[in-house]
Design a protein that fits this description.
2 copies of one chain form a homodimer. By secondary structure, the first copy, chain A, is mostly beta strands. Chain A is built from 3 helices and 25 strands. The first copy, chain A, has a single domain, classed as Tachylectin-2, Chain A (5 Propeller).
């Protein structure tokens, strides 16, 4: 079966290419980047995860963004690991620290690394100049644990940036806008916890802005993809169900949108991710009706990309290909994707080849 | 400590007062009613839960709203209980049927009863004439498992009705409007799963409509109360955190808004519910700043009502007092509340007494 073609230069961005934002941190992940064509350049918004440097095996130095003299900064908290383990804390997942909770059994109380968003630019879409300083960083209580998994959508002459705002209050979706990737404005949370993987349509459909979004309920239901509508991009409603986690196959664990649907002559092309219950993340594709995007014209029965090469199967969290950005250029689809929750890679496919795979 | 005063007529509505909507069902709960003063009457929207009559102990007849000839109707599914138990199904919770799920261990696949909303009218606020037919019933896939826990808010000359739309897709919030409690219009889901206990403010504050809402995240965070804003009541954004589940005391399990905040000279009075991790549901009160309702002026340290009397401690799901409706009349606060997830009761308090309890 035809699928996305990895470029030979992969991985195109690794953690060694990214300068830490401060002297006492190290970059442990540079992944899940938003992408857009801006003039003659490709711009990525890289999710850069940093942790504090600490060689003491008994101490875990976890970061939290907190206001210091009124300005949010990454602050270091030194945890005594043996002491906390004795108190019932759990350190098994390298991404989080969990503490005993009367309500929830174990509840996440720290992340081991925190993410900000970094701008990178390229003339060829493969070799990137990565800025040395963060572009978007936490500045609110909703981002105390970082800004993750951005998406970029060009709409009405503005670049809309949505990303996952993570904090002890939950995992929600923040909206920001920029015109120049130098300054930006935040517009608050457009979706309350738990909701992420938001993908805006790049134009109004039937007079409404549209956003795929992926709420994750505590009780009844699975983390499914929904479609919301808006008049102003700030306020969203009329949520409609789009696609659910499946009972069998490669979509049994989690699903979520990749990046903004792309308008083609045959309909909206929408790239998404799906994981099975073993957390193996793959990519798939939908083709949706132009005037009624809830109507699925075609869907990839099998993944169009799955973690197979070593840079996808081994790493910070192996067995993951995950996209937050891509675009169509001259009938070639470019899909930027994070690999193993650590680095960035690129895969492409001719639109006609993808249509053939989708049987349309 | 001063608290709400139960009226001697309690419970004011029981399941025996409510006629089933069809000959083959029985009413098992008539509770969690919205309330409003309409002219010289008190109108309640009662949540009426019905189940199919079936005396065969080996068969559980569960209901589902499904389209039959294009019209949503309550359809009966006969489950062979011993057979399903052998297959790993769980019938321990009388409210739900759970089936084995590779993703979730056990997942709810049926509710044992389904709810619709019924209008009741009263001249004295205590004795109600209950309509014989449902007012609002499921008509969408988002309500396949019922319409629950309504709230009523009079705003701009219209009664806004929001209620919990329950289906296998999750627990979301539906918006409807009525002018006469005879006809109504549904406006779609304003919040995706999981989100309930939505309480609209009865007027714009600083130029925006406001809604407390209670999302419940699957992962990080607890089911907390948030405040969203809107320009049109249909599309909501700028979600801000208001109040969280607490680590100790009577608010450790779940919290959520009761009904629309009431404007008083001292600020917004906002009645809410909280449960501990044993699912004992109590009521509490906030006093909020008039111009910045996220600012808590005062809060009841202890419940203003807790399940104590037999009609509150014993029933379909005992140990629950839960309000979805109330109003202020002549400086007396009327709080209609569901008891033991089965019947309706009423408690009142003079506003000055409640202020005294709140220390304001």
């Amino acid at each position: 079966m035809m699928s996305l073609n990895r470029i030979p230069e992969n991985p195109i961005i690794t953690i060694d290419d990214v300068k830490p934002s401060r002297p006492d941190t190290e970059v442990i992940c540079a992944f899940n980047s938003a992408a857009a064509q801006v003039g003659d350049e490709t711009v990525l918004l890289i999710r850069v995860a940093e942790k504090f440097i600490n060689d003491d095996a008994n101490v875990l130095s976890v970061p939290v963004y907190e206001p210091v003299d009124g300005v949010y900064q990454m602050v270091r908290k030194d945890l005594n690991v043996p002491e906390l383990k004795a108190a019932g804390y759990n350190f098994d997942d390298p991404r989080v620290v969990e503490a005993p909770s009367a309500r929830d059994g174990l509840a996440v109380v720290y992340l081991s690394s925190l993410s900000h968003l970094r701008v990178a630019r390229s003339k060829d879409g493969i070799h990137f100049d990565i800025e040395e300083k963060p572009f978007i960083e936490p500045t609110t209580e909703y981002e105390a644990w970082g800004c993750e998994d951005p998406r970029l959508t060009y709409l009405d002459g503005i670049y809309y940036i949505n990303y996952t705002a993570v904090s002890p209050l939950g995992v929600a979706t923040m909206l920001a806008t920029t015109k120049d990737f130098v300054t930006y404005e935040k517009h608050g949370l457009i979706f309350a916890p738990e909701n992420r993987n938001v993908c805006f349509f790049p134009r109004k459909v039937n007079g409404k802005y549209l956003a795929f979004n992926r709420p994750a309920p505590e009780g009844i239901g699975t983390p499914n993809i929904w479609l919301a509508e808006s008049n102003d991009m700030l306020h969203w409603g009329n949520q409609k169900f789009f696609y659910s986690v499946q009972k069998d196959g490669w979509e049994t664990g989690r699903i979520g949108g990749g990046f903004h649907p792309i308008e083609t002559e045959k309909g909206w092309l929408f790239i998404y991710h799906a994981a099975d219950i073993s957390n193996r993340y793959c990519l798939g594709a939908f083709l949706l009706d132009k005037n009624d995007p809830l109507k699925i014209i075609a869907k990839s029965e099998k993944p169009i990309l799955e973690p197979e090469l070593e840079y996808e199967t081994a790493g910070f969290f192996g067995g993951v290909v995950f996209t937050c950005g891509g675009y169509l250029q001259d009938d070639m689809l470019y899909v930027y994707y994070g690999v193993a929750d650590e680095n960035m890679a690129l895969a492409t496919i001719k639109l006609d080849d993808l249509f053939a795979e989708l049987g349309v």
